[in-house]
Amino acid sequence: MMKAMILAAGKGTRVWPITKTTPKPMIPILRTPLMESLILHFKKFGINEIAVNTSYMGSEIESYFRDGQQFGVNITYSFEGSLVDGELQSNAIGSAGGMKKIQEFANFFNETFIVVCGDAWVDLDLKEAYDFHIKKGGIATIVLQDVPMNEVHKYGVVKRDDAQRILDFQEKPTAEEAISNTINTGIYIFEPEIFNYIPADIEFDIGSELFPKLVAENIPFYGISMEFQWVDVGGLTDVWQATADILTKKVTGYPMPGKEISPGIWVGINVDVDFDKVNITGPVYIGSGTRIEYGAKIIGPSTIGANCVIQSGAIIDNCLVDDYTWISPVVNLKNKVLFGEHCIDHSGDFVHLPDWNIGWAINDSRCVLKNLKEDDDLYQATRMLAEMDDL
Is 162 part of a structural domain of the chain? Predict the structure, then answer.
């Protein structure tokens, strides 16, 4: 059908501190990295040749996806940066610049191709978008959606004529400046001739530079508004919102991991939970290898990662809990995302847990389980605190 490119070179600064340890395309939503969801969606439409530009933490992406054979596709990578004193240094060259770099290497984009941002899940009908693009005959097509005016500042905004040709393009305007509330979803279909408008060897962006250039030079390109689900993880709060929307079925069709053992309760394998003695209100997902002790309380929408230990008395309410997390009986966690060493509020505020010296309450299950076997004092202390809390 088409070749594809996934944009995966950005640092993901708006998703910090999650991107401190995880590149943005690898952020898991219900255990599946965002980029993996895109690749599997491409495969459904026969798109099996995919180029990926990488930069920040690029080796993490390349090590996970390798050549794509395990996903039934072929993947090639283009690293943006250099090796300095034995260490890789990131130097992203913009979304359009990344396209140009791949094209100049071996003329990969020798036919109609699609470009998507690697930080979203979509169930877009790619054939419908492709057919529109071919029918219009333009050099580019942007897939569009309408959003409330108070959200236009996050996106590129377009104005079209009756033939859907793009007349004007604004990158992230204020609500007062916006020419419409029709926004760019970061999904593009291009003809190879697009490279005539992208300079070589400099940083160049699709939204803020390439599209305004096409408008200024009166080059025909079009926008198609389509009804599809689009789970965009553009900012820190979106990680929680995307997961909650899937769990509560506001977003449908997203592949749920594990097995649904009762309505709204999904579990992985090798889970140690007595469901008669643990108070669980769905929707909740519990990862493989996790232990939840009797007397714990889990309120959905929530996810508990793999290989966690939630002790008796702990309360998890509207939370995402990362893999290998140990939570003691004294913890009452509400409206939080635990990711690595950070506790993130649903508003986007976060704290670095080691700075708070609360390893006795929330810790890595791999080290705590070992300590509990060697030091009963910690175990007994948390139990006593929990019992005092119940008085």
Answer: yes
